[in-house]
Amino acid sequence: MALLPPFNRTxxxxxxxxxxxxxxxxxxxxxxxxxADDEVLLDVPDDRLAPxxxxxxxxxxxxxxxxxxxxxxxxxxxxxxxxARRLAAFARSRDEWYEEWRTAAPHDPDALLVGAQxxxxxxxxxxxxxxxxxxxxxxxxxxxHGDLSDPVPWRIALDHARGxxxxxxxxxxxxxxxVRRAPxxxxxxxxxxxxxxxxxxxxxxxxxxxxDLAAQDAPAGSLVQALPARAAFSYLTDGRGPEVSRAxxxxxxxxxxxxxxxxxxxxxxxxEVRNKLMYVLVRLERWTDAGEQLRLIGPYAxxxxxxxxxxxxxxxxxxxxxxxxxxxxxxxPGSEHAGRARSGxx
Length: 346
Prior knowledge:
Layout: H1 5-8, E1 41-42, H2 49-57, H3 62-73, H4 77-93, H5 96-104, H6 109-124, H7 129-135, H8 137-146, H9 152-163, H10 168-181, H11 186-199, H12 204-217, H13 227-238, H14 246-260, H15 271-283, H16 287-297, E2 300-301, H17 303-306, H18 313-328
């Protein structure tokens, strides 16, 4: 079980993955014409979530309740986390269905979960965020008590701790509670990585240590395999701190390439992982690999990471897509692993 390095004060030497990352068997879909610009979609919900959002738009909460209850019964924590986030985001603009649900079933663990996420989201952009977040702590506690096996309220608690400037000892207690419930939950690991980056500014080597060890401990098909690329993304967009070696950045990308190969092409479920990976590969000037991820992405763009660089994330995705196509049209010269990546926005 990976712990935050600055907290446990232990260290292990970084080593690149020992398993092969090239020539890995992948689930290839038949090669078809790439989607046109007007066929590319942003943040498409999967087949389970889409009808729930349609029902919520009609003011109906029962499908949302049933979907989240199913994820809890199946211990499907990754999808539970995704769905809770998306439902809370929808409720920020249209909350009638959620308010009816909360009134009808105030102790429903799934309603409590959405309510906790919604409360944190509403506070996040405020200049008084830290103070406001402290006021919503009881909602997160209620969500955690709703189902003691559920790690998702603890992911919300980890985000809450970062936003409220909580101390390291308190964060470590939350982290240990989270990983007891789900040792390889991706959302909790991302929350821990973001806390580490926020409170040890420009400590990219510590972030990579945490991400690499977590990925080494996780199963090959776990989303935690994408954590080193998240650390690489942070480094490449930060522009501060000591340099991270090109070999380490390439190893992070290779690990996620192997993970991406496990999922079908043109599938909305791994779309965010692939969009983030594509950005990292572009920054590393690994154009052939970026082109392959573009093929696997198909029509599914995601707001992250492109919303970090533009108020029009879909437009930014299309710009990067065009750049990849130009670079790979006649075969881009040079080694895919050559050169030095520079920090800063692409």
